[in-house]
Predict the 3D structure of the following.
Amino acid sequence: MNRLSMVNLQYLFRFGVVGLCFFFSYSMLGQNPLSLQGAMKIAELGSPSIKRSLLNIEQYQHSLRAERASLKSRFSLTLDPFSYSRNRQFDEQFSQWFTNTRLNSSGTFQVEQPILKTDGSIGLFNTFGWRNNETNIDIAGFGENSNKAFSNNLYLVISQPLFTYNRRQMALDELELNYENANLDYAIQRLTLEKTITSQFFDVYLAQLNLDISREELANTAKNFDIVKDKVEADLLAKEELYQAELNFANAQLSVQDNELGLANAEELFKREIGMDLDEDIQLFTELEAQEVFVDLDKAIEYALQSRMELKQRQINIDKSLFEMERTKSVNEFRADLQLTLGIFGDNQDFGQVYNSPTSNPSVGLSLNIPIWDWGERSARIQAQEVSMKSQVLELAEDKKQIKMDVRRSYRSVQTQMPRIEIARKNVENAKRTYDINLERYINGDLSGIDLNQFQTQLSNKKIELARSLINYKTQLLDLKILTLYDWEKQQPVSVALPRD
């Protein structure tokens, strides 16, 4: 082995040791390792979009609880513990003035129960009081009259609207639909977040890969620069080769700086999206392995039409438009309100004898609202709402068509990814062989630095292309999973946990 070969081996060994030391020192900087699954768990707790969806669910949850609570019996007590008045009034029948002094105390206990099925209500009321009433009449023979007595009025009131829609039932149904819609929106946000986090995760991963490759290029360029420098000093190469080697080394340093900047920017965007502290150091890791996944197109479309939450939301909107139609029909409607009251009243100066001589006080009332002429307002509003409902039904049909198109397009894209991956792998293998062959030629002085740099760039580009093709395959499978709510890699439906009360 000649002296030049020994020098080359020494350089190779030296740079190999330096490279390994650099790699291990970089890997032990205290960075937090983070996988894609770990990032999703952090995002589910810290993502702003998820937080907004949860707050929306909480709002409708409280509203629904309040509405359900309003359907139960309500107990209340109204107290008027003290009331005093002294009035000077004129009696027109006798054309005389009189003075009335009144002192009373009372309280009403009531129990009201709404009736959900009929939109009516039934209430039991009991009013107990004490009254001291004095009247001075300025007419000869009348003088002063007074009355002190306890009284109690116990009565039952039944109210029932007729010939109209059940407003209480509709309010409850609408709140339930709003709550279900908020849960569906949360599930959609989670799937959207998964897609966003996956995309940004792989953006950071590619930025890390670019930085690693550029550092590898820098190490190779530094090694080649030392080799060229020694050969030039030994008059084995022209000085032009040293100038080119210096330029290649400077470009490699600049490439590392650019990739460090790109990685820092990508990491901050990623950390903000998942809700992490921007100053926290992370190191992403994942297995970019691709196994061909079988996808049945017909089943994919069937799963999508059965499970897509956007279709459920559209159906909810149609149901809510039916409620709006009922409200519209109630404009200028014929309506009746029936009220029935049954009760007994008693009074006496002695508390214990209030109901010695009770008085029955029933009452019944019926009120009618009869529209006569509204200049076509009600009819026009109903027609407008019918058009809105037709639009909702049309949009539902178009959404189904769009879902079919999206599933088919995603399916076709998935089918083309594996051949691309195989080609990318072969390109990396060929580029690696080509670089190794030409590196040997460069060491032996049979190849210029410019040509070697081109082969190095070609190898780096092929590595990036392979990584991109693997990432594209994973993201395309994720798109198909979101479109169909079916995990084709695991061959099982996607279960989206909803935060029910």
Observations:
- The radius of gyration is 42 Å.
